[in-house]
Amino acid sequence: MKKFSLLTLSVLSLVLLFSVFRTFSVKSYQTKIEPVPEKNLPIEAAVSRLSAGIRFKTVSSLSDTDANSNEFLLLNEHIRKSYPSIESKLKKTKVSNFSFFYEWQGKNPNLKPILLCAHTDVVDVDPSTASLWTRKPFGGEIQDGFVWGRGAWDDKSSVFAILESIEILIKRGHVPERSIFIAIGQDEETIYGKLGAKAITEIFKKKNIRFEYVLDEGQVIAEGLIPGIEKPIALIGIAGKGYLSLGLEVDLKEGGHSSMPPQETAIGILSSGLSQMEKNPFPLSLGDVQKTTFQWLAPEMKFGSRWIMSNLWLFGPILKSRLSEKNSTRAQLHTTSAITKISGGFKDNVLPAKAEATVNFRILQGDSHRGVLDRTEKILNDERIRLISPDTIFEPSPISSVDSIGFETIRRSIQETIPDVIVAPALVSAYTDSLHYGAVADNAYRFFPVRVKPDDVKRFHGIDERISISNYEEMIRFYLRLILNSSN
Ligand SMILES: [Zn+2]
């Protein structure tokens, strides 16, 4: 017994010693790059152009010709007038009714071009929360140091900041070494990007244009969102989860009178299937992207968190269980499934023959559409529930390199813009247009430099969306640096 305890004790101390050694031996991934000052940015005029852009109610739509189209036309006209140098010097290609891309020809045809992208459509304002906005959702008001309104973040700030930076550089006489493409889509928020990103990508494919990298919205600058690090953290999205809205249908082919019901109804069969799915979520794991994120963040943390993050071989299970406590962090650990629609029945005394539901999956790297179908079939284990795959499925994206020209350029441009920032690669759980554009690029990165504090997270697609004027200035400076740094 004594021997055993001695052995356990020595093994434990070895494990402890090794983990502490590892904690102090992990090297920092941060590089020392000083911010580059940028004077004479026309920020007031830039802010008023963004504010005017927010006032067009370009709510996302699957159609090119519905009642909303006038708002898109007016916004595009506003963009055309706001950036005369871009309009006169860059080649513009119109796609669908309201999407377009510019090509800024580079000097060196041997260098692959890069693609900056953004979207002009926005999600609508939820009527049940409209009265909770403290500013008009489509007012574009400039107050208290912020520009307020839908699109101030997602994603009109990107559209305008990218164009501001290019307009400035053209006026200064800059000509890039590498060609720069800017793609502006009209329907990112519909999820499928059919008229925008998808249609533009098809054109690039036909013309055999392949990009060194694409930069799209996605991850942000997190401030106080990651415990253990006080400095702002610029998370560069290196992978995006896949997207699948699966239909579930029970069709018994016959209804009947509710006074003589069968033992199981269409609604009952479907409900118990859905309940089985909720009881059997996809298993949680720390994937390659998450491990990379922790590897980059660990050396920047205080001892406790650093010890845990540097020793995933030992603390992985504890970390996993901590991360699984919050919906936002649990979503990073597995393929999620959410029941988003259900319908069946039309009258209180009639048995419906049919019941339908939609389950939305966000597929993590390592899983696939096929895998999701197989697993769902197994869990349902009921032939009466039919699975219907939609026409458009997005498999999870490949993981983009952290040792590429693109990653290096983005990282450098962030550090030249944001003082005292930490940079780390990360996963993006939400759909973005890059799931299309990624097909024509060697690497796809998902990052825009909006600063997000814990209280701000709910502003995405939520109430009181806004961007601070100083943050908007940083966005313009970031794209400016990015274009200047893209010359090699
Ligand atoms: Zn967006």
From TrEMBL:
SUPFAM superfamilies: Bacterial exopeptidase dimerisation domain, Zn-dependent exopeptidases. InterPro entries: ArgE/DapE_CS (IPR001261), Bact_exopeptidase_dim_dom (IPR036264), Pept_M20A (IPR047177), Peptidase_M20 (IPR002933), Peptidase_M20_dimer (IPR011650). Keywords: Hydrolase, Metal-binding, Protease, Zinc. Gene3D superfamilies: 1.10.150.900, 3.30.70.360, Zn peptidases. Residues 254-383 form the Peptidase M20 dimerisation domain. GO terms for biological process: amide biosynthetic process; amide catabolic process; amino acid metabolic process; proteolysis. Belongs to the peptidase M20A family. This is Peptidase M20 dimerisation domain-containing protein.
